[in-house]
Q: What sequence folds into this?
């Protein structure tokens, strides 16, 4: 099995606020083609340390991938330092400079002179085009060892790796088949879920199973490299079938889909429409739904009714409801969903009202108190929850719970 | 300034699902005592690579901290490998074994024999007690170089570091004051900004300056350890003043604030209110604004008018406007802002309509075409942009541009 090391370059990745995530994505892609990541390094814009790191990695491992440090400023040293570590020069490419000038011209700007350094490439390296940015990548095959130099922004790095690197590495790795599936489950805690399903997945020793908690849902990662792709896929499918048998609708995604994709697909398949009335989630649910391309065919309208006036004015929540039960109550949640649905004329409406904190909690309604409202042609319903976490998590989990509630209501109709 | 390297040990940290987070916490603690983290490594349970990594780190840096790999199983190699890398033996401590046996007895279990290896410690190292687990840590002061070996679980690692390591390192670092500032700038590209401001920051060699691009804004990170805290703060303040002189309102944050915090503070200070009408951003602007605790005092209402019907019904966009100019037009953007402001009765309203893609673009209005509308008591205005990127980036950058447009309009009134 080929070994790889990943080196993330950039002083910002050595601050308490930032971490390298490119290597996670790269690790997954490398696993798929049977390459094992043995070491990861994060190094700043520090020429000596970067050079030593790349040189040591090239000694130890078959494949060395760097990300970042290819920008146009003086801090961006990966281009020259990686060449030095590989014992090569950098050479100037006139056509790269011409291409850069043309890019800037199309944006209506003149190319700053500093960008010229992006026209230099390691001698003998293949140039990897970057349709999404100004820094090209490089792939150097040095007597069977690979040095791959990629830009840092994921939107530039990922397509470059998939289009120009993966195939070449796959050809040399000898391709061990790995089939993977990600399942997503709502409404269970991590250990409760594991207790329930571990007797099942343990009877499939050829499948690697790991359970991960991710903000508001549990992910079950399955992978198998036991046989051919279709053999692995078949045995994973068999296990998924048994897990569905135990978990029922709690397993909302069988192929890694997000909750907003699952809800969107349900609505699209049924040719039905949705509107959303949000208070404490402040637009998060609408934002998630509209993140999905094509959502305009089912998501008609959303209202962020942050003030009581907005709840009355735009959602027709009665004065008396707000006065006698408060803005955070099942009655207000149901009235919001009902008003939203009538305004937008949609098949369904969902609503959320709650206390996201850190302020605004009371003994009776502490921070994390959330009411979800639901409306369809048959009337309204609500769900009451107390959600743990900080403001960010309470909002996120509220949005997830609202989408999940809608999903389960729709499934009941089928 | 002392330099440090952090080495996270454990094969699980080399999977696509997991990442090392201990180093973020440690980096913050080290920065506070004037120690700079120069490199981070993540290495599996691989004796040769781990030994080389620790040995190289000890050569390059003043302080080397490892986390993880101190458990009782065979995979846990950090204890013996770190000793070897430091050129030392491990020595058996009878009192540690007795202590471990006692811990197990208190849990009502017998100590498995494998745990005995946790009674071995690097020769000459200080033993760091672990009240929260079975693995003690180690601190080796090797002629002024420090090797600190810590357990992996954060609830064991963190108190051990704070109680037994921080004080010792602080004493040798001589507590150099480090003062940091993060500035944020809108409306410039990375290299154009650098060209503009590098002559200024380069005349302050005692301030470390780095420029980072972050989705839709440029961050300028400044840090100084030239003197006392107040001296460093004063010289940074002087540089910030000069940068403001050149950048004017393009520098929207002088202390790391987000755009939504800056806009929120402006509104709060002026005691004014806002409403938001969104089409292609689908709730993202409202979501960002309401991410800020206390936003209910200025953000009154938001409407996600995804369908044309919603634009007419809730925002009073005239039929003729949509028919003759289309949903993505300056006229619709202005009408949306105007309708939103009149509905919510707010001082300001902003709106966004555009084509986020990947579908829906035409020759005349390609993907990335975005119109931002603005309304106040004096009337309406608009801004037209063509934004590069994928759906996610177009939506994010649209939301940023809309908030920035509002911010600049408000500043003009002051």
A:
């Amino acid at each position: 099995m080929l070994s790889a090391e990943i080196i993330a370059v950039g002083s910002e990745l050595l601050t308490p606020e930032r971490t390298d995530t490119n290597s996670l994505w790269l690790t997954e892609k490398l696993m798929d083609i049977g390459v094992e990541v043995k070491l990861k390094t994060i190094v700043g814009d520090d020429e000596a340390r970067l050079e030593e790191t790349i040189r040591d990695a090239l000694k130890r491992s078959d494949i060395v991938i760097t990300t970042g440090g290819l920008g146009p400023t003086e801090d961006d040293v990966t281009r020259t330092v990686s060449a030095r570590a590989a014992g090569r020069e950098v050479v100037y490419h006139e056509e790269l400079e011409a291409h850069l000038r043309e890019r800037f011209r199309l944006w209506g700007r003149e190319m700053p002179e500093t960008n010229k350094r992006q026209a230099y490439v390691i001698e003998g390296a293949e140039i990897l085009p970057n349709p999404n940015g100004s820094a090209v990548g490089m792939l150097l095959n040095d007597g069977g060892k690979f040095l791959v130099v990629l830009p840092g922004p994921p939107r530039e790095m990922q397509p470059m790796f998939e289009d120009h690197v993966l195939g070449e590495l796959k050809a040399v790795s000898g391709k061990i088949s790995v089939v993977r599936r990600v399942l997503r489950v709502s409404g269970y805690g991590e250990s409760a879920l594991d207790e329930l399903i571990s007797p099942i997945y343990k009877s499939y020793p050829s499948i690697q199973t790991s359970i991960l908690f991710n903000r508001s849902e549990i992910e079950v990662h399955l992978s198998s490299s036991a046989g051919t792709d279709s053999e692995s896929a078949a045995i994973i499918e068999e296990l998924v079938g048994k897990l569905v048998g135990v978990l029922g609708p709690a397993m909302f995604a069988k192929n890694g889909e997000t909750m907003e994709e699952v809800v969107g697909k349900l609505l699209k398949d049924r040719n039905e429409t949705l509107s959303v009335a949000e208070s404490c989630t402040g637009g998060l649910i609408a934002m998630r739904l509209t993140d999905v391309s094509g959502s305009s065919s089912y998501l008609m309208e959303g209202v962020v009714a942050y003030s009581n006036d907005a709840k009355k004015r735009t959602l027709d929540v009665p004065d008396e409801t707000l006065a006698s039960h408060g803005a955070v109550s099942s009655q207000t949640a149901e009235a919001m969903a009902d008003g939203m649905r009538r305004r937008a004329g949609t098949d369904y409406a969902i609503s959320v009202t709650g206390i996201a904190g850190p302020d605004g909690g009371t003994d009776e309604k502490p921070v994390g108190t959330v009411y979800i409202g639901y409306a369809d042609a048959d009337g309204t319903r609500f769900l009451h929850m107390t959600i743990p976490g900080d403001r960010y998590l309470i909002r996120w989990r509220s949005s997830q719970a609202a989408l999940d509630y809608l999903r389960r209501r729709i499934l009941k109709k089928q």
In short: The mean pLDDT of chain A is 92. The first helix of chain A runs from residue 22 to 32.
